Every structure is written in structure tokens, then in C-alpha cells.
Amino acid sequence: MIKLLAVDMDGTCLDARSRMTDRTLQALRKAAEKGVVIVPATGRNLECIPHRLAAGTLRRTGTPDDYANKGLFRYVISSNGARVTDICERKTIFRASVKREDALTLLENCRGKGLGIASHVRHRYLLQGRFLTTAGLLIYGKDAQGVYCVRDMETFVRRNDCEVEEFQFYFLLPGAKEKVRTILKEYPSLHAAYTGIYVEVYSRDASKGNALAALAGHLGIRQEEIACIGDGENDLSMFVSSGLKIAMGNAVDKLKVQADHIAESNRNDGAAKTIEQYIL
User: Fold this and answer.
1) What is the pTM of this model?
2) Domain span at 270
3) How many CB atoms lie within 10 A of CB 13?
4) How many folded domains does the chain comprise?
5) pLDDT by residue (tens digit) across 73-132?
């Protein structure tokens, strides 16, 4: 019997236009009503959780029972596993931050390298400069309540007593990708996940799998009672911590090879159909 369902957001619960369909939302709600613990597991920071999923949940007030009975979810794995948060008790269950010394020297070394800089700090999405912030607001749309502008990221981190959950370095100029790749070779405590336009940088101790295992231990749920659905390489670690492993039809091949089942793509409500079939 599945007691916990960990679901990726972008590329899984969200369609190709970053929207959550009615069918997906309904499937998640029915699973929650059945008693399954629904856990969003995302590379996003906590305050940029999809607004349709978060409506009435992140801002709900009351007792833990209020969340269990009314809220769609109580626990969130965010920033690629750097945090697990109990949003009811406003408590961190698991954390794996970038070391402060590494954060400061990395920002110093990346200065003047043609990079746009963003970070996840205190569950918020901080972007350096107005241009990058405007782009972030456009990309996240209604999910952008956690987007904030800072003038200089290095100055902000240095002046504030805060832990960095994740950095994102956007490649704004030719050669920027190779420059940051060379710099990151000097940081063995950090993990780098590259895309065509940016790289995500976070602690090597941060992964969705580590976060999921920590949450399951906190809740007393066994591995065989956990299901997960994902589409990207950052979801591979969740497979290690789950009993039922489901890859989206649009997932990377590495994930499909390890999956117990392959769903339809996120263009065809694949996550919803899978939840209906295997959870409900």
C-alpha cells in the first residue's frame, strides 16, 4: 500500500506550458483524501511552488490536523532536495546548504564572467539585477510570489546571515558556460547540473533522494510504501528511496531505464493518469 507519493513539478505535474491541469489537481486531491501523503519534490524554491497546487495550503493557518484533513500537502522537498519543510509547523526537517565560505568565494570567482546570478535563500528566489528579475517574473508568472531582486548577490550573502540552498548561473555571454565549468572544478563539495542556458549549483549532500529518505524516516514510512513520479535526472535519486518508481513519457532515458512503469507524457496528463491507475 502506498502511503507517500513524491511528485516532481516541472515536466511532470506541469504541462509543456508550465500549467497544472484540472485532472492532475483532482488526482492529487483524491490521493490526499485517501490518506496518501502528497509531497511536491521540485527544483523550485518553496515560495515558487505552482500556485494552483499551493492555493489554500501554503498560507493555511491552524493545527497539524487542519493540514492533514484540508490541505493538499504538508511537506515540500524544494531546491533539488536542499530543504524538506513542514509548512504546518514552519519547521525544517532536512537541510543541505552550500557552505558559506564556498558561497562567497564562488560568487567572487564568478564576478565579471558574463553570468546572470540567482539563488534560493530562505525559500525565496533572488535574482541579481532588474533584467534577470523581470525575466524571472515572466517565466514564473502567477507562481512568482517568491521572486525578489537584489542589486549584488555577493554583497547580499556577505551582509546577511543566511544559508544558500542553491545557486543558478545563467550564461549571458559566449564562453560563460566553460568559464563557470572551470571555476566549479575547484569546489568538490558542490554538485553542478547543467542545461543549455544555465547551471544549478548546490551541495553534494542535497538531492531529492536524500530529502525523501529523511522525510520518510521522520514519518515512519517504509521504502516499499513510497511512490515517486519524475522526468529529469535530478529525479533519479528519488528512485533509490522509493518502492514504486514511475517515469514520465517525456522523461530522460536514464530515468526510464530505472522505472517500474512509464507514464504518458506531461502533454497528455501522464501524471494524473498514473496516479489514477496505481494510487487510486
Assistant:
1) 0.89
2) 4-95+206-279
3) 30
4) 2
5) 999 999 999 999 999 998 999 999 999 999 999 999 999 999 999 999 999 999 999 988
